[in-house]
Structures are given as structure tokens and as C-alpha cells.
């Protein structure tokens, strides 16, 4: 039967019909009832084909239901048919006798020719893009391959390939249902079929879509491009297109004239991108989209800001004035990295549209997941589950699209339930070069867009020097996104008229290409000449359109000189209406207490230890965990997981949306969280008790991500960007896994406010701690975050009443290493209660998740309590501070090792231990207070990390600033090393023993100089 299944039933039916038509005698057969074998009815040799069809289907269902001769015949026919080309398989289903082979009937030839024509149509649909005229320069192959499929070379060759003759060109053929080239006609001559196929697939549009495994979607695309006359434009549409091209090109020309020596990363060579983007927006607006979020690299950004987002030209021109001083705080950024937010009327649809261009650095494609996260958030807050109101557009460079791994990571988020944005329109500006690198050296795939095939996104390649083809493709792309809620790629095959920037000399590395570019007629002139020739516009109208826009630019240039102050705030891409004052400052500089009423703690604890759904069977091990939570609640204590539950739950009651994302966060890497319960008997039945806390609570989203850090952290950053009234957290599986998301941390999180005046309250949860588990599962690299903290180690602060909050406002982010569940609870709530937003980096524990001493009482979390930046000693040493000989400062898990060792040595009265819960910004005021409390004590900083890592290099100069040279702070910890931790358990324990001995050796530093 395995051989049989190679033939589809429809093909088998056609085969048995042909059998009868050829007059070939078949074997005897028997009916399904008992009876002797029979020949064909009527004894005609060929017989009744319907009778044979019946036997064929009977054999398909059960080969034993027919005579052995028929069974053998069908099996042998299938073997022979499967060994020949697809369009010839039908002819071999029935082996021909010598006489039949020599005198094939007209019927069999007709069937064979029709199958050949169907195969020819399919070849164009699959491979036609390989011969499309996509390169406007006419010198390169857009797919890096000059190979032309042998079945599409020339008319003669393709006819021969399909066993057709020139005489067949004028024969009429029935068109299959998988093509729309006939329009209302069912038959066409072969000559006309080829002409229409070449017009559709081999001109200025190359279509890649036949890899899509959905028949409906393939049919939709075929209808959009194959139907005769679909690419017809009215005179008004052509005039609009021309006007948009004028604005695109003349904007670049104006900048080139005024600031010829300035880098601006202009769009010359792909000016058609501006009308392309506007078409996507127009079509989307027509279909109901109200909010479009864009991300793009630096090339063409100023043009997009001016002519798509419609930013005031004088604001753009201000950026070029070197004499203007920025009034806003922070370092700012170059003009071609800035973003924008604008609400306006779409003049084509006469509907309101909100456009947002997300600011981003030069790290190519890093903005992709950020845009997707922001889009997802906007859809969430609008209740737009299908993406019918909010959408994203991403513009890419060809080299980056193929080369940057975050593109792949972002595509793989496109259909995940908690990450999908219901389709993105991707526009690739295919310059056919990356900086100075030839595409043949920059990628292995034929096209730069091949990565999009992994999510079955159709790819529309188009020659950017054919504006009408570009506009049609963009219109179809927008409609595709709205119809199927899936990604789509528009590949604008163009060129780069200048070098990588305006100061660069491209002839060094691409001499032949740039010789052709220098001769290339600009797209605006070519299109204007075309419209003038056909009478759509006159030369005078064209020149007036140019003069009109030039005048607009000149007037804006004049106004830009009057600008006394350059405000980056005008370029904000994510405004938070009502959150700040009119001038963008916080409404207050105080933070209320972060504790909550005890009855609320009890209620959340009870829900956290229950299953809100009836008839829901949970794992027996999970039942034990829930009983443990219930027991803690009764005893008024919490562990780390329950403290997190209470922080989240209390914020949900206050209307704050909470979203926790990352690898395995639903259960928790260390099996401590269990925020999603799974029914053990019903597949995919789950329960999230957090969403059953209060009748009118905000929604809680907890979602396991794909195995990605770069893409997912970028996504969550974008999500947090959309609203200040949400707690958005990303948890690394292990703290050091943030390494692969370092670009997002460095370029967006650490510097986002300084560069773009953009607040962001994202929280990073990074499991950290030396547990003897090896170098890759130990350190979250706190030294990297502290090195990027902007508080000044040498500036002695002024301790004002609101010092804590003002210090937080001035910092670029907050870095904490909590040692108690209560601290974690408070710092999460403080993140929302602050009157501004800063990124929060939390080094979360591993062993402390279940440490019997790492528990907090309700008393530390009830109303009136707050986050303690420093937790002072509260034992015997605090009762007699004058007798304390050593004051140890530390942070995080090592505190419990120190307390245990102090107890074992009986030094409770001689050694005090103070914990820094907040490391940056540095708590100067509390550290000074603690040190002065123990005036005769030797100061020690103890950490479990190696000396060249961890916190010491950060805290040491700050201690010196606040306490002076008279009281140095000594280091106790592991010695410098290359790797953050050992992979040998015994080595780990030996080094731990060594630094604990040093920490409590009260004579360790005698005679030493600091």
C-alpha cells in the first residue's frame, strides 16, 4: 500500500478513465460479493470506465476487496508512475502495449498537454521570482544567483521541457483552479498563458509565497497578482504618488544643499520608501487601524519623520544647528536615532491616526522586539485582541535583516499567544550592499528576506524604480496583514546613491556598482516623465509641485533659526498623558509607604494556597506546596514566592496590570512560583489563581517565553514603554543569561532616559548567588550594572528630607540585592508608587527561596512599613555598639553565611553585620549613619563574588567619599579570577571557608595599610 499512496485518488481516477479510452484490456476482476473474475463489461477490451473507477476506489479502501490481478496491476502502475516527472505520471498509471504506444489517441495527448500546461503555470508561481527584473541598476541578481530555472529560460526551452511543441502555442487549454490569469475566461491559448504568467511573475515584482502551507492564503495571493488588470491606477492616485515622491526626494536634496558636510543617512536611491510607507498606513487606516507603531534603522529616518510621521520641519532642522544647546537632561542622541509620536488626520481616509516612531540606537534590528512589545501593550490596553486597531511596521536594511539574529528571535514571537501582535508589515530597504560589504560576502541565503520563510510570511520583492509596482505591493501587504493577521515582507530592491553616510566614498570598494549609480536617472524624473508622456500631469504642474515643497522647506528653515532651545522632549515616542506635569517633571518628589493592610496580606495568602476552580486536579507535590503557603499565612510569615505573590496581588487590586515574562516563569526555574496550575487529567486546562483575587482587579499576565533573551527582553521593554501604570518584569532563567540580551540593556535600559528622555519602569529579575553550580549558573554580573550606574562616587551628597526619592530620580536605574522576602515585596511595590519610572535590576536568590531563615513576618509588610535600603544589625552587637570591634557590610545571600559563622564562633557581641538592600544609587546617608553608630569598629566589605567582580569596586570609593581616609573599608571575599565561579563543589566550599575565616579573624588586618 505504501507505493499506492504515492498516487492521489484524483490522479488514479484519471488514470483508469484513460485506461478505458485507450482500449487497453485490464485483468479480470470480481465484485465485492462472491463470484468468478470477470472481464470488462460488454467484452470491448476497454470497457466501462465508471466500473473501473469503482474498482479503483474499492482497492484504495482495501486491496483485498479486489482480485489479486487488479491488486498487482494497480501496485505496479503506481510504482512506474511515481518514478516519472509529475506532469507525466498520469501517462504511466497504465502500462501501454506496443500497439497502444505507437498509436496514442488524441485524447491521451490532450490530457498530457493539459497536465504539462498546469505544471508550467505552477513553475512560474514557484520560481518566477528568480527571473523577475528586480534590480533597478540591472547589474546584480537580487537573489545572488544568475541561475535561471531550466523550465523558464526561453519559450522554446520551456516548451521542450514540458514535451510541448511550437504548434501548441496557439492551442486553447483549460485553466486549473489554482490560477487566476484567465480572469473571467476558463480557457486561453498557451501563448497567452505564458504572456500573462511572465507579466505577473517575471517583471518588476517577484513573488515568494508557494512555500505557504495554507491553500486559502496561496489562492488569495494568486488572485491579487494574477487577475488581469489589477494594477490599474487612477489619474488622481498617480498624481498623489508623484507628489509623495517629490516630497521624498526634495527633502533629501534640501538637506544636502544646507548641510552638505553633515551625516544624515539619507534615503537617496530608495525615495520610493516614503510613498510605500504612506500607502501601508493609508490602506491600514482604511481597514480600521488607528495606531501605527514603526521601527526603523537610521537610513531615511529624518525623511520618515518629516513626510510620514509629519514632524515639524523646523524641529528637524534645529537638530542640525551646532550652536543650539539642549535644555533637557541627559546626553541626548544624534538626530537620526530619535523617535516621535504624533496624532493627526489621515488625509486619504479622513480618519484619526496615531503614529509612533520608536527611538533606537545604531545597533541594527535591536528595535524590532521593542516595537513588537509596545504594539502588544497598546493592543492589550485597547482590548484589541485581533490587532484590528493597532499594528506595527518594521523597516529593515537588507544586510542587517539577514545578519542579525534578533530578527529571527522576533519572528518566532509572531504567533505565540502572549507575544503575537497579529501581523507586522516588514519593509526591507534592499540597498544590495551592507556598509562596504558585497551581499555575496554577507549572507548565505539567496535573498536577505529568507528568514521570514520560517513563519510562512509571504515575501514580495519589487523593483524600487517602479513606483506603481511598489505601491500596489504595499497595498496588498497591508491588506494581507489585516485579512490573515500574519507577517508579510516587502523587499524594496533599490540602491544607495551615496556611501554608507554622506562623508563616505563608496568607489573604494564598489567601483562598478557606483559607476552605474552615477549614471542612474532618479526615480522621480523617470516617473514624472512617464506621467507627462501619458498626459496625467503637465510639466508645469510637476515643476509647481517641486517649487511648492521647496518653499515649505525654506520657510521652515527660517523658523528653525528662531529656536533658542533644543528640546529632545519634542521627540518623545511614548508620552504618558497625565503622569507627569505639563513640563514633564514628576508631580511630587515623595513616595508613600509601601506596606499594605494585614487583611489584604491574609486574603492574598489564602488565594495563593488554593485552587479557585472546581473539579481541578493538581499534582500531589503541588498540593504540598499550597499547604505550605496556607500554613505560612496562618503563622503570618512569607517566603520569597509568597512575598512576590502579595506584591503582585496588591498591585492588581490597585488597578496596576502586572506582566511577568521569561523562560519558565510560570512555574519558576527553581520550582518555587507555580503561578499557573495545570489540571493533571485534562490537557491544556490551566488556572491562574492570581486572576481570582478581586472582583474588579487588573489582569495578571504570566507567560513562558520562547528560548530567547535578546528578543524577549526587548519585547518586554517595549511593553513597559507603553504605560507607566503597569509592572512589567522579565526574569532570566539564570542571571548570567542576560549576556545574550546585553544590547537591550546597554542601549535601551541603561541609557534610554539620557538619550531619549524616556522613562521606563521595566524590572529585571536575575537569579544570582555562588552555590557551587559552576561559572554559567552563578553570577548575574552585578559589576556590569554597577559600572553603568551614573551616581558619582566622588560627590559628597547633601542629605535633604527627600534625599531617597531625589536620589532615585537622578539615577539611570536602581540596583538591589534583597536579603529578605519583605524587602523584595516592598521594592516591587515602590517601583509603581514612585512618581516617576526607573528600570529596576533585582539580583534574586536561588538557595534563599527555601532557606528556613529567609522568611519575613507580616509585621515587616503591613501598612506603614517601607523598603529599607539598608538593614542594620539588630542583635547583641546593636545593644552595645561601643564594644563592636568589626562592622561587616554585605549584600544578598552571603549575609546568612556570615550570621551562621558568627554564631558558631560566638562573636555576636563583637561583630555587627549590616546589609545593603539597595546598592545603586548608593545609600550614602544610611551608610554614614551605620558607620558612626560603631565608632571603634573596623569596617569590612564582605562578598561571595571574586574581588574583580561583584560590588567592591563600586562601593569602595563611595565609602571613602562618605567616611574619608581615616576609616578604610577592607575587602573580604574570593580572590580575583577570570571565571565568575568554580565548577568544582569542593573548591567552592574551600574558598567559602577561607573568606568566612578571614571575615571573623579580628586580627586579619592588623599592621596592613589600606
Automatic annotation (TrEMBL):
The species is Dipodomys ordii (Ord's kangaroo rat)
User: What cofactor does this protein call for?
Assistant: Mg(2+); thiamine diphosphate
Question: Signal peptide span per the entry?
Answer: none
What family is reported? Belongs to the alpha-ketoglutarate dehydrogenase family.
NCBIfam families per record: 2oxo_dh_E1, PRK09404.1, PRK12270.1
Recorded protein name is 2-oxoglutarate dehydrogenase-like, mitochondrial
Domain named Transketolase-like pyrimidine-binding is located at 638-851
**InterPro entries recorded:** 2-oxogl_dehyd_N (IPR032106), 2oxoglutarate_DH_E1 (IPR011603), DH_E1 (IPR001017), KGD_C_sf (IPR042179), ODO-1/KGD_C (IPR031717), THDP-binding (IPR029061), Transketolase-like_Pyr-bd (IPR005475)
Q: What does this protein do?
A: 2-oxoglutarate dehydrogenase (E1-like) component of the 2-oxoglutarate dehydrogenase multienzyme complex (OGDHC) which mediates the decarboxylation of alpha-ketoglutarate in the tricarboxylic acid cycle. The OGDHC complex catalyzes the overall conversion of 2-oxoglutarate to succinyl-CoA and CO(2) while reducing NAD(+) to NADH. The OGDHC complex is mainly active in the mitochondrion. Involved in the inhibition of cell proliferation and in apoptosis.
Q: Where is this region: Disordered?
A: 24-46
E.C. number: 1.2.4.2
Quaternary organization: The OGDHC complex comprises multiple copies of three catalytic enzyme components, the 2-oxoglutarate dehydrogenase (OGDH/E1), the dihydrolipoamide dehydrogenase (DLST/E2) and the dihydrolipoamide dehydrogenase (DLD/E3). OGDHL/E1-like isoenzyme may replace OGDH in the OGDHC complex in the brain. The presence of either ODGH/E1 or ODGHL/E1-like isoenzyme in the complex may depend on its tissular distribution.
- Record-level Gene Ontology MF annotations: metal ion binding; oxoglutarate dehydrogenase (succinyl-transferring) activity; thiamine pyrophosphate binding
